[in-house]
Amino acid sequence: MLRAFSGLLLILGAVGTTACSDATFDITQDVPASMIAGDPTASMMALAGSTAPQPLPIDINAATNMRHTGPATSARLKQLTFTITQPAGGTFYFVNYVAIALVPQSPTSTLPSQIIAVLKPVPAANTIALDPVPGIDMLPYTNEGADIKAEATGFLPPEDTTYVGRVVIEVHF
């Protein structure tokens, strides 16, 4: 299950563009395809764990500079979805719980590790949408160079499963 959401660690690598309003704009990024190696013998074996922290390479200041909006005042996770592309018609039936957290890189940071999205229970659907935790400002974490970490429980599917995703961050200025 740890491998199941390793692709999430790449979701914030490049800054996409979307619509702009008077005081906010969205940064949208596709999650590249990731494969969960199937294991026909482990379908009933419960797994739990988390991925190693990975860099969160998003530059909100660059995004505000590109839009000439002035400095960002906050950034919040707006949407995080995953869709299974293989096998055809596949679902997330093998996942029970998913959480995504921001983790400060610096050991001297005063920022706490912070869960920013969670889904429990995970529906047996082709596309899942994690629930953003309200009120979490990602800006201090991105300014400091935080890592992201995925935690999941469930079991390995019996066949190789590929998924893609999409993340949307709302930036306030």
Apparent shape:
globular
Tally of extended strands? 9
Q: Averaging pLDDT over every residue, what do you get?
A: 83
**CATH architecture assignment:** Sandwich
- Total helices: the number is 2
- CA gyration radius, whole angstroms: 17 Å
Q: Which fold does the CATH topology refer to?
A: Jelly Rolls
Instruction: List the uncertain runs.
Output: 1-21
Query: Helical content, roughly?
Result: under 10%
- Count of domain modules: 1
Note the main sheet: 9 strands, antiparallel
The amount of beta strand, in percent, is: 35-45%
Which structural class is indicated by helix and strand composition? mainly beta
Which CATH first-tier class would you pick?
Answer: Mainly Beta
Key phrases:
173 residues, globular, mainly beta, disordered N terminus, single chain, 2 helices, Jelly Rolls
